[in-house]
Amino acid sequence: MMYKDLYGMACGMLDRAYAPFSKFKVGAALLSKDGQVFTGCNVENSSFGATICAERTAFVKAISEGTMEFEAIAIVSSDGEAWPCGICRQFMKEFCDDDFKIITGDDEDSLKVYTMEEILPEGFRL
Ligand code: THU
Questions:
Q1: Per-position DSSP letters for 24-73, written without gaps between them
Q2: Which of 16, 60, 107, 109 stands the most exposed, by the fewest C-beta atoms within 10 Å?
Q3: pLDDT attached to residue 62
Q4: Hey, whose CA ends up nearest to atom 9 of ligand 1?
Q5: Pocket of ligand 1, candidates 21, 41, 53: which has the most ligand atoms within 8 Å of its Cβ, to mutate?
Q6: Residue 21: burial class (beta carbons within 10 Å; 0-12, 13-18, 19+)
Q7: Quick one: pLDDT at residue 14?
Q8: For ligand 1, is residue 45 a contact (CB within 6 Å)?
């Protein structure tokens, strides 16, 4: 799958985001090594700390369906490019190799691609 296509699927999730408090919608599309795509969006809560980010929604969907090996994730927000928060970086680190790709950008013609190692160097794992 092309990164542009994965990015397009992340954009398609912005409509599903539940973000009445921040108004900041986030969509994600996670590509597994066997070619499946798991999408996600942020889901906020009146108790703000109970909010789940789009990236973790996608990972939890995949892992709970039995998929554990991942190649790339595309992320986009209602304001354009979107970077994973610290909690999401740590969450991804648990399941991803150093060469796992994080894709974002303001549009499909200006994609930025980083690796897990680049966005969380010397990341923690037990
Ligand atoms: N958010 C994500 O979905 N992913 C991130 O990596 C950063 C933050 C969401 C959480 C919350 O609903 C909104 O963006 C504002 O923080």
A1: --EEEEEEETTS-EEEEE-B--SSGGG-B-HHHHHHHHHHHTT---EEEE
A2: 109
A3: 98
A4: 53
A5: 53
A6: exposed
A7: 98
A8: no
Residue 1's pLDDT is: 80
Averages of pLDDT over each 10 residues, the chain, 126 residues? 96 98 98 98 98 98 98 97 98 98 97 98 96
Residue carrying the six token digits 């790709």 = 101
Q: Which two tokens stand for residue 119?
A: 């966005």
Task: Indicate the length of the chain as a whole number.
Answer: 126
Structure confidence at residue 63 (pLDDT): 98
Give how far Cα 79 sits from Cα of 1, 26, 68, Å: 25, 9, 30
Q: Residue holding tokens 């969380």?
A: 120
